[in-house]
Amino acid sequence: MTSEITLIVNPTAGRGRGAHAAQPAASAFRAAGFSVRTIYGENAEDALTRARAAVEGGTDALIAVGGDGMANLALQAVAGTRTPLGLVAVGTGNDFARTLGLPVRDPATAGRGIAEALKGARLRDVDLGRVGDTWFGTVLASGFDSRVNDRGNRMRWPTGRFKYDLAMLAELAAFKPFPYRITLDDSEVQEIEATLVAVGNGSSYGGGMKICADADLADGLFDITVVGDCSRTTLLTVFPRVYKGTHLDHPKVTVHRAAKVELVAQGITGYADGEPLGPLPLTARCIPAAVRVAVP
């Protein structure tokens, strides 16, 4: 039986929910008979250093307490190892947890479920995306949505999600499609005008927006959703349908499947799991069974 586990906590996730979630999650693990070590990083770099040290030191599981940012950080420590990952999802988006069917914003229930999964060896191997040395679990976003992120990240006021609503309005005012070159599996090349291109290992981003609604975490392939050259009016019509995944049948939307994709475009930043990767061009690879997850 797994006996010693490590919690890595983002105290600021979900406007402070991360710090409050650590205690009930840890209590659930201890009640199940586990020894728990909790680590906090002074910043993302320090947190990752501590997480990697815990994995290299032989912890029996790494439990990320926070949102998608903390889940992404934990992936950098456990991907390619056999150390199980648990998710106590208490952030704003929690898309990786949602895709895995895990509880959201209920740390005690999440802790009990992970403990039961570890004790019963109910572990699931799932695919991850990789760009260079960086791993991601959900979606690599580029285009209109990443431009909104860029603008929102530059804004000092207002705070919270409202600034991204304002950033979206500003980007809509200046909206135009972007010239892309997309290469699939080193063979198929498309040069198109696109509003956005999303490379999905998982199905959703942005807190439940099912941009790659049919993506499968265990098929060894990305679902690549391309929203083509459309008008501002069409974009406003299509975008709300993303929450239910019904946008995929729109004539301006196409979906491709590939294990490797290269995206080339000028002035576009790629974001994976909501974290900036850097400017395009970027090449993403789908790595089968790259992480082992404790699934209740």
From TrEMBL:
Top-level taxon in the UniProt lineage: Bacteria
InterPro entries reported in the protein's UniProt record: ATP-NAD_kinase_N, Diacylglycerol/lipid_kinase, Diacylglycerol_kinase_cat_dom, Lipid_Phosphate_FormReg, NAD/diacylglycerol_kinase_sf, YegS/DAGK_C
Protein name: DAGKc domain-containing protein
Cofactor dependence: Mg(2+)
UniProt entry keywords in alphabetical sequence: ATP-binding, Kinase, Lipid biosynthesis, Lipid metabolism, Magnesium, Metal-binding, Nucleotide-binding, Phospholipid biosynthesis, Phospholipid metabolism, Transferase
Signal peptide extent: none
Recorded family membership: Belongs to the diacylglycerol/lipid kinase family.
GO MF entry, a single one: metal ion binding
GO biological process, one term: phospholipid biosynthetic process
Cellular component aspect of the GO annotation: plasma membrane
Domain DAGKc: 1-134
Pfam families: DAGK_cat, YegS_C
UniProt entry tagged with the keyword Secreted: no
Matches recorded under SMART domains: DAGKc
